[in-house]
Amino acid sequence: MNRDTILSVINDIKNNKISTLDALKIIEDIPFKDLDFVKLDTHREIRRDYPEVIFCKSKTIEQLESICSELIKSEQALYSKIGKKKALRLMEIDGKLEYNPLAKMLYKGIREPRNSKIISIVTAGTSDIPIAEEAKISASFMGNIVKSYYDVGVAGIHRLFSIYDELKESNVIIAIAGMEGALVSVVAGLVSAPVIAVPTSCGYGANFNGVTALLSMLNSCSPGVSVVNIDNGFGAGYLASIINGR
Prior knowledge:
Mean pLDDT: 88
Helix content: 25-40%
Largest sheet: 5 strands, parallel
Structural class: alpha/beta
Strand content: 15-25%
């Protein structure tokens, strides 16, 4: 339930369109909706401006069906780390949902951009695109203009220089890389915008499923870099949206 809904209820009470008892029934789930196995944070949009995002990876299809049936009443919904089979089932329940198989995200209600400021997403390689798509959908969902540039890593650094003008126009940059994660330091050394670094789990054995890239990004000598967890495209998109909306 968002602010507009609450204000509408208040106005209806003032104008005697509904009784106080009916109003209480409408807003009784503002703190959270208790479904026994999950307590949906229906208050989050009021606190944070964005609704709760459902992490699907470890949830059963039955649990997700119950959540989806509840969120069908919401204008916005976002499900992360969801496989195709589960996504198709939820799309049968809520026909407004759309699925991005690369990002493994299911969503509805992408907001119109709040301003003209740009969030740019760059990846070191093609293998990083799924995480980039997760970040892109997350930031777009929250009302931002997002532009993406894929496969511009340091192994062919001239590819990065070809988009230098676009990067300079960005208000926030999300840099995504596996292997040794070097792209982040290079990007941060070229621009004035804050850079959000996302280590990915792609790489050979000594990459340690993203730990090497994570440590490299945490130790970046370029100022203005913040780092989210391994493969956390959603977290990067969320943080970029908060920065972009200031």
